[in-house]
């Protein structure tokens, strides 16, 4: 388009572009056909794509959106090319899934591994750093499950899909309180006489050792260990 063809107030160009008005009907037809094919592809891909998805499946979803966009809206793009690309994406995803079933190493390379974030009520700081997560993000996820302190937890895993798997202790121990004292709801953690918890990693020590650095992370910040 030449610069002189761009005029403010040219509503035909703004609303329809350079395509004729009848192309709107063709756009509706293109959208209907590609939508039906896309639904078919998603149905074949399986129910997991509609729920919590892995990195691989998220990539497939973004690819599907990019494929159907141009054939829906561009007059010089045929819809058969879009349908062919949808089928290629379906075959690729199915192939990667079959490769994951055949080889555990291939599955780990394409979908990621499970990472342990909390072990025996103590934060694994190195694992948090590698996963790009902060303590506040983990604490928020735990609070959403009704957990008040780390002493309730045996293990926390970050799955390949991004979900958190939480294994609770059968018998609670003293741990670091993760509740937020907002001064309004009256929510609090009961104090325990079982020592102090490191505010950085949750390591619990006896009362006579809390003035020394944390033996796990060398932090000097302590809080009273709590137990529900």
Explain this structure:
This is DUF421 domain-containing protein. Keywords: Cell membrane, Membrane, Transmembrane, Transmembrane helix. Belongs to the UPF0702 family. It is found in: Cell membrane. Residues 103-183 form the YetF C-terminal domain. This protein is α+β, with helices and mostly antiparallel strands and 228 residues long. It folds into 2 domains: 3-109, no CATH class; 115-226, 2-Layer Sandwich (CRO Repressor), CATH 3.30.240. The chain is 42% helix and 14% strand. The protein is built from 7 helices and 7 strands, in the order H-H-H-H-H-E-E-H-H-E-E-E-E-E. Strands 2-1-3-4 form a 4-stranded antiparallel beta sheet. A 3-stranded antiparallel beta sheet has the order 6-5-7, with no helix packed on it.
Question: What is the beta-strand fraction?
Answer: 5-15%
Q: Give the N-terminus to C-terminus distance in angstroms.
A: 71 Å
Q: If classified by CATH, what would the architecture of the largest domain be? A: 2-Layer Sandwich
Number of strands: 7
Task: Count up the helices.
Answer: 7
Give a short account of the largest sheet: 4 strands, antiparallel
Domain module count = 2
Low-confidence stretches: none
Just give the CATH class of the largest domain.
Alpha Beta
Percent of residues in helices comes to: 40-55%
Q: What fold name stands as the CATH topology of the largest domain? A: CRO Repressor
CATH superfamily of the largest domain: bsu07140 like domains
Compute the average pLDDT. Answer: 79
Spatial strand arrangement across the major sheet: 2-1-3-4
Class of secondary structure makeup: alpha+beta
Radius of gyration, CA atoms, in whole angstroms: 27 Å
Overall shape: it is: elongated
| Series of secondary-structure elements, N-terminal to C-terminal | HHHHHEEHHEEEEE
């Amino acid at each position: 388009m030449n610069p002189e063809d761009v005029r403010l107030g040219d509503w035909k160009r703004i609303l329809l572009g350079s395509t004729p008005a009848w192309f709107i009907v063709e756009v509706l037809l293109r959208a209907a056909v590609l939508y039906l094919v896309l639904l078919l592809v998603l149905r074949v891909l399986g129910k997991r794509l509609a729920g919590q998805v892995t990195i691989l499946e998220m990539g497939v979803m973004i690819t599907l959106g990019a494929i159907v966009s141009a054939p829906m809206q561009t007059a010089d793009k045929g819809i058969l090319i879009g349908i062919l690309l949808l089928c290629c994406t379906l075959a690729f995803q199915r192939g990667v899934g079959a490769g994951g079933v055949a080889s555990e190493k291939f599955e780990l390379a394409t979908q990621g591994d499970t990472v342990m974030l909390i072990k025996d009520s103590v934060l694994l700081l190195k694992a948090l750093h590698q996963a790009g997560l902060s303590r506040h993000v983990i604490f928020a996820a735990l609070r959403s499950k009704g957990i008040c302190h780390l002493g309730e937890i045996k293990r926390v895993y970050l799955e390949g899909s991004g979900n958190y798997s939480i294994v609770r202790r059968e018998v609670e121990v003293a741990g670091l309180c993760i509740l937020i004292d907002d001064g309004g709801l009256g929510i609090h953690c009961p104090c325990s006489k079982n020592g102090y918890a490191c505010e950085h990693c949750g390591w619990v020590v006896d009362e006579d050792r809390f003035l020394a650095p944390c033996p796990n992370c060398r932090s000097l910040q302590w809080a009273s260990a709590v137990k529900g």
